[in-house]
Amino acid sequence: MGEVSAQPDRAARLLLILERDGSTCIWCGRPFAGQVRPTTEHVVPRVKGGPSWLENEVAACGRCNGERGHRSPVEWLEECQRRGWPVDVDRLGRVLTALSAAIARLGGQRRARPYLDAQVRRLLRRGATLPGVPA
Ligand SMILES: [Zn+2]
Description:
α4 packs antiparallel against α5. The protein has a two-stranded antiparallel ribbon. It is built from 5 helices and 2 strands; from the N terminus they run αββαααα. It is mainly α. The protein has a single domain, classed as DNA Binding (I), subunit A. It binds zinc ion. The site of zinc ion has 8 residues, from β2 and α2. GO terms for molecular function: endonuclease activity.
């Protein structure tokens, strides 16, 4: 038998994410229904070393997920705000904070750490309040 993974599979993770965050796209705020389908999106992209953990995943509609491309989460958040979309800043703050805590607990993720720290600083500079992080 292979190694036991601490993470549920992808489909199960998506359901857990929807339970955790609600059934709307983090970026454009549209509720998931009909043609607006939820996809799993990595906050810290995999190419930047982001892990496939619940703490690094949010639900986004396929349009936003595709359009964000390789932009960082805060860069894309700013673009969504320019478009006047009701982007969920608090949700992004919670996920970034939870990911920092998970990395501190589990260790590793050397590539993701500096990227994540920079994103947290950039979000704080925008005046966001993050749970457990001094402003
Ligand atoms: Zn969307």
